[in-house]
Design brief:
It is a multi-pass membrane protein. The chain is an all-alpha fold and about 425 residues long. The protein is built from 20 helices and no strands.
Amino acid sequence: MNFPQNNSPKKQRRWYFHLLTNLTFWVLIAIIAGVLLGQHAPDKAVKMEIVGKTFVDIIKLFIAPIIFLTIVLGISGMGDLKKVGRIGVKSLLYFEIVTTFALAIGVAVAYFIEPGKIDKSGLLLQDPAKYTSNPKNYSWLEFFLSNPTLQILLAAIVIGILLTYYSRREQAIHILERASKIVFTGLKCVMYLAPIGAFGGMAYTIGKFGLETLIPLAKLMGTVYLTMALFIFIILGSILKYLKISIFKLLKYIKEELLIVLGTSSSEAALPSIMVKLEKMGCSKPVVGLVIPTGYSFNLDGTSIYLSMSVIFLAQLYDVHLSFFEILTIIGILMVTSKGAAGVTGSGFIVLASTLTAIHKIPVEGLAFLLGVDKFMSEARAITNLIGNSVATIVISISEGDFKTPDFDNAQKLTEI
């Protein structure tokens, strides 16, 4: 007996409709298209830089108001200034511990795999003069003045505290909540442009630097990506497993943000939307508002791994033996200087230059070997930074007792564009 198949076309339409209206699908297609254009028409691909850069610049316009509104509303709505201080102290302590793990794992894997044990005569050189000509001493003041995110964070905390004591606090909160809805609605509209931004960013990267530049330093590239994966799935995965949360479910939940970062090579491109998703997932607004912006300055796990591995790579490349004490010194220096590798293009190389200058054993000119492939490793750094800050937000939220058991599927529906 044949049963009617009336529901089949309807189900099929639903499946195709879901796929074609899924932002992740279009971002992935855009990244693939960018790679193909960069490889086969590099001249045209390089001109796409303006497309990716414009998208990131538009997203950056939302960073300041979102951070400001989220923190001010979180603090004034919470009404407990002791809790604000407690969250801040917990965050900084967590950041330092996890960053130290990131630095240590970077050094350990680099020593085990030895990516610098290659013939440097065939490597592509670029001019590192702008980073090595005048390495600067680390300055907390300069770091603060060059970091707008940190400035906004501080201003928002101060205003949030003052608003707590304001006699018309409720009226002010109502106005700020309306402003917040307008800003997030605007962000939702802009995120429709994410595939275009990812296409432009990836096309420019491949067109400008070329996949062939990866071959001489493929061992370093592979080691960096392997180390990032080990850190994400073993260190961060273990932290989440202890809290009874799956790292795989979290990655699936934030896949759109990960692809946007992959395409644009900028973790800032995903900052506003990751704050929305973490709040929808179950993290409290005050924790999200305080931890994410602070983490973008002080919890750069991917950058820390890259910096520590780069120092060991250059030591191996120049056959420089480092004692155990010198390795500990490098980790100690990077624990401080890695905090300054945020917010400014090329700041990672400036940090590397100042670190190499401080230990007086590895030629600073060695940065010339890294410049050719740095752009291809920036995606790994940015993605690891994003995942690290997401995990940090969950950890601090749980420690404050403000975290609801995550319903990833329901949270995804709440944030779908």
